[in-house]
């Protein structure tokens, strides 16, 4: 879990810095877009996985549901805040960053989950 979050933070910083090399507004937009995805995702991950391993499946399902709804609300609020304020962000790089980091999150989650599953099978 923590490893996946560090991977996302590292990629977020690298993408933002590379965008800054093209244009300040593009780098800023990429940073905002990745932050709109990353901050709610971190909260969702911490909320949804806090009951793993304690045998309370009802509490686990409830925390996943609450975390997912909270993630969607925070992402919507973040995008609404950016687009209603004069944040100076360019819409295309911002939305590409949100979608790109969503896809990256799915890939990282899949890889780390398969690694954990194969490690559990070997034990």
Which features would summarize this protein structure in a list?
123 residues; mainly alpha; 4 helices
Mean pLDDT comes to 83
Terminal CA distance reads 20 Å
Put simply, the count of helices is: 4
Q: Can you summarize the main beta sheet?
A: none
Helix/strand structural class: mainly alpha
Specify the helix fraction band.
Answer: over 70%
Gyration radius, rounded: 16 Å
Overall tally of domains: 1
Number of strands: 0
How would you concisely characterize the structure shown here?
The protein is an all-alpha fold and 123 residues long. The protein has one domain. It is built from four helices and no strands.
Can you offer a commentary on this structure?
The chain has 123 residues and is mainly alpha-helical. It has one domain. Helices cover 86% and strands 0% of the residues. The chain has helices at residues 2-22, 24-48, 57-84, 91-122. The chain is flat. The model has no long low-confidence stretch (mean pLDDT 83).
What secondary-structure arrangement, pairings included, does this model have?
Elements: H1 2-22, H2 24-48, H3 57-84, H4 91-122
Helix pairs in contact: 1-2, 1-4, 2-3, 2-4
